[in-house]
């Protein structure tokens, strides 16, 4: 399609085409059908401006079957209570802080909560060491500001300000990476539910329905610890690592299947054995002990999270599709595993070699995997 064709297309259908063609659609686009079915079946009370009742939001996240037979796929696999507490928090005057080690689905849960509650997961501030106050409050359109002075028209609202004005869910990613003084901008927003605009002698008051979901990484603790004043404005929910290998295999295969479909990769079922293997290796190295509890292991420096297992398997499926026979095999995941485990070339390599020779080599039915790992290790 040429530029002029794109421009002559009506805006509405252009937005639809973009959503279909998007490399990674937003949760509310990818699961629009499920959200619509839930809204239709949902006769429980909804908090102000919520698209669904808390019960329906929890069902959207955890999965279930509606009375008319519509199947809602699970987005989050984990304790039901965690999701219930998270959803309930959003209906109170406290904000929600999702805390956990890397790769425990904090960002994922935050996106899906915002999609289910407000129908929009894009009111997002990405926290970094360089996040300025304007990213949380508002900025200015300088051309307008210089030409006409400060006015509402010259003001560029942040995603948080827009969420306040519209009674929606705002998201702040990696809250603890944001410098402490910038973090504290959130205190007034969360306690007074207002955002003062001194330049205009005005304010934006939060409308009912507004709330905020922040995520923070356990490993970043100490980088910019939350002030106690700010922490009190949040209800903290800790997302755990998957409790069992079966649960983790389930998470990985589901996500890989979804990702694979958007990348036109082969179906997962043929690769279950290999997924099991990746998860076993990751869990054993992470826990520092073999699955049978018999052999102690050293843990490498990288975080061998579920998210990493998902990338290794997706990468393996792509290899199998483009250079193999379409079936996921040991050789397709070996290089990915090595890359995830060996982050520090010196120390991690020794840990990996030891694991390879003492555990992988001796294990029944793992000869193909041992050989594949040896091939990529040299
Ligand atoms: N319990 C789980 N249920 C469903 N998906 C999960 C689970 N744990 C991890 N995942 C998957 O792992 C991937 C990565 O998760 P996500 O990016 O949300 O992690 P995170 O906790 O935000 O990590 P980080 O601290 O690195 O930002 C997502 O694709 C998500 O689907
Ligand atoms: Mg994250």
From TrEMBL:
Stretches of Acidic residues bias are at 1-10
Q: Which InterPro entries match?
A: ATPase_dyneun-rel_AAA (IPR011704), CbbQ/NirQ/NorQ/GpvN (IPR050764), P-loop_NTPase (IPR027417)
Q: Give the highest taxon in the source lineage.
A: Bacteria
Coiled-coil stretches noted in the UniProt entry, renumbered to this chain: none
Q: Where in this protein does the record put region Disordered? A: 1-23
- Basic and acidic residues biased stretches: 11-23
Tell me where in this chain the ATPase dynein-related AAA domain is found: 96-234
Pfam families from the entry?
A: AAA_5
In Swiss-Prot or TrEMBL terms, this protein is called ATPase
Q: Source taxonomy lineage?
A: Bacteria, Bacillati, Actinomycetota, Actinomycetes, Kitasatosporales
């Amino acid at each position: 399609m040429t530029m002029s064709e794109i421009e002559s297309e009506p805006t509405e259908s252009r937005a639809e085409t973009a959503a279909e063609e998007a490399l990674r659609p937003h949760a509310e686009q990818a699961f629009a059908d499920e959200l619509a079915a839930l809204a239709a079946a949902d006769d429980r009370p909804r908090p102000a401006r919520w698209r669904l009742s808390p019960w329906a939001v929890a069902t959207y996240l955890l999965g279930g079957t509606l009375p008319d037979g519509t199947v809602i796929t699970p987005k989050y696999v984990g304790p039901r209570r965690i999701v219930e507490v998270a959803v309930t928090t959003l209906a109170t005057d406290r904000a929600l802080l999702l805390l956990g080690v890397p790769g425990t689905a904090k960002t994922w849960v935050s996106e899906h909560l915002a999609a289910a509650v407000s129908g929009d997961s894009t009111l997002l501030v990405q926290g970094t060491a360089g996040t300025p106050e304007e990213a949380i409050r508002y900025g200015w359109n300088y051309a307008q500001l210089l030409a006409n002075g400060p006015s509402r028209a010259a003001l560029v609202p942040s995603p948080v300000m827009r969420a306040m004005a519209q009674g929606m869910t705002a998201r702040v990613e990696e809250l603890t990476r944001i410098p402490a003084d910038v973090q504290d901008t959130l205190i007034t927003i969360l306690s007074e539910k207002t955002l003062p605009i001194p330049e205009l002698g005005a304010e934006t008051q939060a409308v009912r329905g507004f709330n905020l979901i922040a995520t923070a990484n356990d490993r970043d603790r100490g980088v910019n610890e939350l002030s106690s004043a700010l922490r009190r404005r949040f209800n903290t929910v800790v997302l755990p690592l998957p409790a069992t290998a079966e649960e983790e295999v389930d998470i990985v295969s589901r996500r890989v299947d979804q990702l694979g479909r958007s990348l036109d990769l082969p179906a997962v079922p043929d690769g279950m054995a290999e997924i099991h293997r990746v998860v076993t290796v990751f869990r054993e190295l992470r826990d520092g002990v073999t699955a049978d509890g018999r052999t102690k292991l050293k843990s490498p420096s990288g975080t061998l999270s579920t998210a990493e297992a998902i990338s290794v398997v997706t990468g393996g499926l792509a290899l199998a599709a483009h250079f193999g026979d379409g079936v996921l095999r040991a050789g397709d995941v070996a290089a990915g595993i090595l890359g995830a485990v060996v982050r520090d070339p010196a120390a991690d390599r020794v840990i990996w070699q030891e694991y390879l020779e003492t555990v992988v080599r001796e294990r029944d039915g793992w000869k193909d995997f041992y050989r594949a790992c040896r091939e990529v290790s040299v």
